[in-house]
Amino acid sequence: MTSAAQDDDYWRAPGADKRQVKELRAALEQRARSGQPMTGFQLKGAGLAGIDLVNHGSHHGFILREADLYRADLQNAHLFALDLRGSSLMKADLRHANLHCADLRDCNLLGIRLDGARLDNVIWDRQLLQERKGRELYHRGNVAAALELFQEAEETYRNLRLHLERAGLFEQAGMFFHREMVVRRLQMPRYSWQRLLSWLVDLFSGYGEKPLNVVLFSLGLIGLCGLLYFLVGVNQGDHRLGLDLDQGLLDNLGDLLDCLYFSVVTFTTLGYGDISPHGLARPLAAFEAFVGSFTMALFVVVFVKKMTR
User: Does the keyword Membrane apply (predicted)?
Assistant: First the structure.
């Protein structure tokens, strides 16, 4: 077993059944410590519970890239900083495993079991493999295959989110919730109202995960409306504030700042009354006040959601 286990042909042979091989765990640990490359290993269904693949005494973990670990038993495995990039961990059992600092980029994580696993500082993809492939197929016109991959991506994002929430890693959980909602949107009809509404929610708040988006939208709307007030004109008592080509640059700049002030007051629905709209500025002010009250309520909801986790 020992000589065969150290042979590259054995480890990479897709037909070799390693599910019932005794001493497989010890052989793989020995191979890792030998320093020889471990790429493309076929470990489908392998019994590796409790395996120790920690590169002790080094800040860099062992490399086990592009491995097939479909349904592998990795319960209670010690995988600190293990580089698993490109591997298939589909339906692998990693319950109570130590994945601290492991690299799981480009991995197939569909159906992975992570109950009780240590997930601190895991290196994740911002977009899972299924989502990236689905987008490629979608752009090529293969919609049916793309939708199937988007469904798998949504399921995987949801599974990871739930495990991360249980582990108290809410920042990463929020990232996967956002991706979950994005791939759900991609499954909607392309030109439907549901998809447009979902896109707008993502744009304005990142599905509740990005309070900064709400702030940036608010600042953008205030600036745009302030500029429009400057162009159409507002009243300050008997004096008109707005663009006037007959007055100097500094006077126009002062009127612009006053219009921005009026925009802030209107957006926040304070309504001091020192400046009032007239003509085309009236419907614009009504629109800004309505959107402003809604946006401030949205910001409170999103901010509280983030801060109370």
Answer: yes
Residue 33 to residue 175: CA distance in whole angstroms: 35
Render pLDDT for 104-144 as a digit per residue (tens, 0 to 9): 999 999 999 999 999 999 999 999 999 999 999 999 999 99
Residue 235's SS3 state is strand
Spell 252-281 as b/e; 16+ CB within 10 A means b: beebbebbbbbbbbbbbeeeeeebebeeeb
Return the domain boundaries, the chain: 1-123, 125-209, 211-307
User: Nearest to residue 28, comparing CAs of 76, 62, 70, 71?
Assistant: 62
**Which class in CATH covers the domain with range 211-307?**
mainly alpha
Structure tokens at 34: 């030998």
Query: CB-hemisphere CA count at 13 Å for 39?
Result: 4
Pick the CATH number of 1-123 from 3.40.50.300, 3.40.50.2300, 2.160.20.80, 3.30.930.10: 2.160.20.80
**Using CA atoms, how far apart are residues 295 and 291, in angstroms rounded to an integer?**
6
- List the alpha helices (DSSP H) in 34-142: 129-140
